Amino acid sequence: MLLQTHIPLYPEKNQISYDKRILMLGSCFVENIGEKLKYFKFSVQVNPFGILFHPKAILNLLERAEQKRSYTENDIFFLNERWHSYEAHSDLSGLSKQEVLEGLNKALQLTLSSLSCADFIVITSGTAWAYQLKNAERVVANCHKVPQNEFDKVLWPVEQLEDCYKKILKLIKRINPNVRIVFTVSPVRHLKDGFVENQQSKAHLMTATHLTISAAEQSFYFPAYEIMMDELRDYRFYTDDMVHPNAMAVSYIWEKFKKVWVDPKSYQLMDEIDKIQKGLNHKPFNPDSGQHRSFRRKLQHRIDRIKEQYPEMVF
Q: Which residues form the GSCFA domain (predicted)?
């Protein structure tokens, strides 16, 4: 008796391994999977500008990085005793104008360098609903609690999203012709937009994504949204807000992602790193005991053995 349907997934030919570099941009899904890759000590950069929900916000960031247009005072604004940028998440907001500009420009340099040397780029879109500043008609990455009457909320049609995705692909390939690009749609439900409106949005994103990758080389789709909706179709897989996948769901989707995109030759090292991570997180009853000191020495020896082969890893 089958009590669950499974989306057919097959390993890709060229997969992620420890000698590959990864850049992840977009919505909460890349944060979740990025944390898993970081845990296992892969070389990964995740959202230098924080979470970006709309494809146009990702394109805006990439265009600025390619053009090396530094942020200036004209690109930030002051609200609620903090400085913000409409192109970045509130993680990059701050009390000092200088501090915010330094953070934005540092993130810009990191984005360009990661873009240039990445072997894989993962791009996740969260919504097709765009918030456009009325006085500038530009899509913002984050509203930063600016009053809603300052924006027009617009559902981007498939054609406009497809054009945006194609521009993203073209830009990336100009900088890094050999990179492999994995597109996903975030499984996070944007219910504040409305139940029907959220489904509309996800459908637009998926249609535009498939139209884009069907005509492109080295571009792929990973069905994160579909796994959440079809394989994990139960509210016990959500956090208390009934919007975000919980830890169990993230781990389940990670295992599916690993099957498709992580080289099995890396599994043995991943298992060893997992044991080290659990050892480092272990809280002893008596940190000064001889038993614990011996445990720490053995743990350090295991770390040193890995660092002989991968000196860039930091534990």
A: 21-257
